[in-house]
Amino acid sequence: MSAREWIGKDFYRELGVSSDATQEEIKKAYRKLARENHPDANPGNAEAEKKFKAVSEAYGVLSDPAKRKEYDEARQLFGGGGGPGGFGFPGGAGAPGGFDFGDIFAGAGQAGGGLGGLGDMLGNLFGRRAGAGAAGARAQRGADVETDVRIDFAESVRGATLPLRLSSPATCATCGGSGAKPGTSPRVCLTCGGAGLVSRSQGAFAFSEPCRDCRGRGSIVDDPCPECLGEGVSTRTRTLNVRVPPGVEDGQRIRLAGQGEPGRGGASSGDLYVRVHVAPHPVFGRSGNDITITVPVEFTELVLGNTITVPTLDGKVSVKVPAGTANARTLRVRGKGVHKRDGTRGDLLVTLQVVIPGNLNGKARAALESYRDAVADEDPRPHITAMVRERGG
């Protein structure tokens, strides 16, 4: 959607948030409304489908910081009323006695003078430079779409290809996006000559505004497509194969260019953003490109040393524990971590955690008591003992 067509739309109201809402609040509101009005959850409900399209359109603008800034500037510049009259102009768009300011500056260069440089200065606010052709007035890029997928821990490490089923606006398959019933074609609007814009004078100024007969499209559909009702866009269910790259992290977004809502007037489609949620693993954790694991060991294994078997995502590996290893020490196993884009892998970090037995049989207790007596003259905490004696004496 071009900024020119934001006039008269209150995206904040569509999502039920304030104009100073944070990105997280906007995302939360969108997900709630999209879930409630999703076509899969409301089969045959035209109102729910209409609301789903509206909140998707609103989120496509407000979720993009650059588009949101541009939208807010347009609201501020033109009064930002957000009511039925659009951006606060008397009478609203197309009302008797009022002005439709949807393209007041964008077409100034076509009118032969008038606002002149002011139109050039503000042209980008409405998606094109002043004096651009009619195609620029009608064309609008499709909105971006966001969805979520859940994968397991192993898939996040190795990468995966997942089928993704989407119900979203797409180019109508029945009419091919023309909006006209198969076998018919849209006709050129006679009012604007296909330009989508009409010019008129107001005192010393000349204004260009969207044609009211064709709503700025440049063409009129006399016999609408029964599938999309003349819009050229319909909600359909499609399946995409999404490649999740190795090493993807929880919350990361994957961009699929051109897989969002279709554009209008020959403009490109929006993008699809897939947010990945990684399920936690009961044994393994992750630290950057390294996989972590905590392995219980016996006290004697740390003191005397041992070779232990440790599980990995690929099977198992033997890890040597040197004699005299301290509790909670982390040993590194090279190349058993997360797959990287350059073809290498991170490491497996094995943290050793001594296990304290809750119950001892007689033989084990006797052995420990013998050990205690054998090291009775060795103080494991000499600096602490010295401090105690100093303060006590």
Topology diagram in text:
Blueprint: H1 11-15, H2 23-37, H3 46-62, H4 65-77, H5 117-122, H6 134-138, E1 145-151, H7 153-158, E2 160-171, E3 187-188, E4 197-202, E5 205-210, E6 219-220, E7 233-244, E8 253-256, E9 272-278, E10 285-287, E11 290-297, H8 299-304, E12 306-312, E13 315-321, E14 330-333, E15 348-354, H9 362-374, H10 382-392
Parallel strand pairs: 1-9, 11-15
Antiparallel strand pairs: 2-7, 3-6, 4-5, 8-9, 10-11, 12-13, 14-15
Helix pairs in contact: 2-3
What does this structure look like?
A zinc finger (CR-type) spans 159-237. One of its GO terms (cellular component) is cytoplasm. It is found in: Cytoplasm. The protein is of the alpha+beta class. The protein folds into three domains: 1-96, DnaJ domain (Helix Hairpins); 133-186 and 221-280, Urease metallochaperone UreE, N-terminal domain (HSP40/DNAj peptide-binding domain), CATH 2.60.260.20; 285-382, Urease metallochaperone UreE, N-terminal domain (HSP40/DNAj peptide-binding domain, Sandwich), CATH 2.60.260. Helices cover 25% and strands 24% of the residues. It has ten helices and 15 strands. It has helices spanning 11-15, 23-37, 46-62, 65-77, 117-122, 134-138, 153-158, 299-304, 362-374, 382-392, and strands at 145-151, 160-171, 187-188, 197-202, 205-210, 219-220, 233-244, 253-256, 272-278, 285-287, 290-297, 306-312, 315-321, 330-333, 348-354. The strands form six sheets. It has a four-stranded mixed β-sheet. A three-stranded mixed β-sheet has the order 1-9-8. It is elongated.
